[in-house]
Amino acid sequence: MTTTRRRLLTAGVVAVGSTFLSPGRALADGYGSGASGQWETLSKAISTLTQIRPVLDTDGLFMFGDSIAVQDGSSLAKRLHSRTGDVIAVHNWSGRPTAPAVDALAQWAHTYGLPNRILMATGSNDIFTPPVFAAQVDRTMSIAGPGRKVYWVNTQVHRTSQSTDVQLADQRNSAWINLQLADAQRRHPNLVVIRWAEFLAAKPTRLTAYLRDGVHTTAPLGQDARNELIVQAIEAA
Fold it and tell me: Which pTM was predicted?
């Protein structure tokens, strides 16, 4: 097992114990995290054409995310602009899995064209069907093309409102998603993985200090930490 895989598996189980179930076992129990809900009626933040144009004019960033991005996106935009001068246009939707987020990316690419940097903050809602995730990462990279940089925040989910068994499944499935993302990074040199899961796993106290429900960031501590990881990755590339 490579060092990267070992770290990802460790990050995937640290919150709920040391037991790790393989993807094969997960297939037998329906993945264990339950079913995804109807996300289409949930809260969203989508930039208007007036907000998109300056991003294209200045070669800023497009962002596609889920409920964490809905919550943290405004704070991220301010932090990034203060550090790099970049502006962001967002297509963030609570509860949305990665496949429809990539659909939105494809729609914007067709309608507006794309800047040279894309931020994907999606994956948490793929814990319900982890095997579909890898194809969506490859699809994203195909839409972006080899000349654009794609930043992708990896996943840490253990819903504290759920039973211990479901929390364990959430962790297992998060690690599975993150392994697929790490594998994709080896295939796509223009993919930058932002390692949120490993950051949280580095110190056990971070899981409660930085996450209010096992998924969403606390404000301002967790929000600032996650956004800082994103900004640092963009600054470094």
Answer: 0.89
